[in-house]
Amino acid sequence: MGMRRLGKKMAIEDEVQAFRDALVGWFEREAVDYPWRRTSDPYAVLVSEVMLQQTRVAVVFGKGYYERFLQSFPDVHTLANADEAHFLRAWEGLGYYRRARQLQATARAVVELWNGEFPREEKDLRSLPGIGPYTAAALRSFAFDAASPLVDGNVQRVFARLYNDDRPVDQTEGIRVAWQRAGMLLDEKRPRSYNAGLMELGQKICRVGRPDCLLCPVSRWCTAVEPGMLPVKAKKTQITELEERAILAIDHHQRCLMAPESGGRKQGFWRLPFREEMDGGNQNDENLLWQGNYSITRYKVLLSIYDGAGQQAKDGECWIPLEELENFPISAPYRKALRQLL
Question: Does the CA dihedral 282-285-286-289 come out positive or negative?
Fold first, then answer.
């Protein structure tokens, strides 16, 4: 019985329940043991959700960011009172620093408005800075085991294939329908396992490009004709290539010249300085020390670093002792370059 028919009454309810049972049973047998699944602390759950919003699990978990962050900021009070430089240093490498600042704003609001205790109701969670529909639902599901439908990119992909739905998932109608289906299929008795299972199904089985339909625990209900072609997206991101040319200048006091990052996203972080004379294409390749690529949102950046011996500090720039660089908040691409150069 296909998913198009799930939503009618009587015997269809039995099929819906069978779908839930199959999904939850698979998840409880096959779930990956992530550290955020061993806790019901809403603060720890929130940290994991914010980190995972635009960063792969392999980075958040595999490179230890989540556990290191909680070691430095173990509870909502610690994060709320954290010094920005210390806080940003712990977040460094995850990118999307606006998320980090929103996370701290959420922590401060919980401390100031709720005496350090996260509210449980959706409307109260949604009133906190940085908490949208998905994050509120994730907190209710994973921290409080409360019946809240949720939709992320993985869930959208699963639903698009289950229903063989070619409506763009990044437009209003596609988003509305996904949330409607999430509410209709939600297992209200086991929301934590069900929602986690639905997301993990999208990560491991119903993945981007080539889903593993033979191992899918809910393939019986899937109506996709060409699952690899779904979901459909209306917006196509255009990648813009940029180049950054910076200098590495170290003085006789063993200090490195650093410049503050510009723009709201990277406020509080530092990088190697730019020099106008590097932008005209007149730099000598013999002075090139390091080159590498990095990506951020819709940009692909070629970072070139040149020998800056003899350069002086300009407005806003400062000299940082080399032994202090490791604890200094530096943008990830520049941290990588400095570690290799020094």
Answer: positive
Paired sense of beta strands 299-307 and 240-248, if any: parallel
* Residue, of 290 and 278, whose pLDDT is higher: 290
Structure token digits, residue 342: 């020094």
Q: How far apart are CA 53 and CA 51, in angstroms?
A: 6
Contacts 24+ apart (CB under 8 A), 220-225: 220/1, 220/22, 221/1, 221/2, 221/3, 221/6, 221/15, 221/19, 221/162, 222/2, 222/3, 222/161, 222/162, 223/2, 223/3, 223/4, 223/162, 223/163, 223/164, 224/160, 224/161, 224/162, 224/164, 225/164
Known catalytic residue at 49: yes
Work out whether strand 288-296 and strand 299-307 pair parallel, antiparallel, or are unpaired.
antiparallel
Going along the chain from its start, the domains and CATH numbers come out as 3-229 (1.10.340.30), 240-341 (3.90.79.10)
Burial label for 88, CB within 10 Å (0-12, 13-18, 19+), is buried
The answer to whether residues 177 and 241 touch, using CB atoms and an 8 Å cutoff, is no
Measured torsion, CA atoms of residues 318, 324, 325, 326, in degrees rounded to the nearest 10 = -160
Q: Strand, coil or helix: what is 27?
A: helix
> What does pTM read for this prediction?
0.76
Length of the chain: 342
Cβ–Cβ < 8 Å for 108, 152? no
Residue 188 has pLDDT above 50, yes or no: yes
* R_g of the chain computed on alpha carbons: 24
- Token pair listed for 86: 């210390």
Q: Return the exposure string of 142-152: e unless at least 16 CB atoms fall within 10 Å of the residue's CB, then b.
A: bbbebbbbbbb
> Of the residues 15, 28, 49, 244, which is catalytic?
49
Digit-coded pLDDT (tens) for 12-54: 889 999 999 999 999 999 999 999 999 999 999 999 999 998 7
Is residue 332 within 8 A of residue 294, CB to CB? The reply is yes
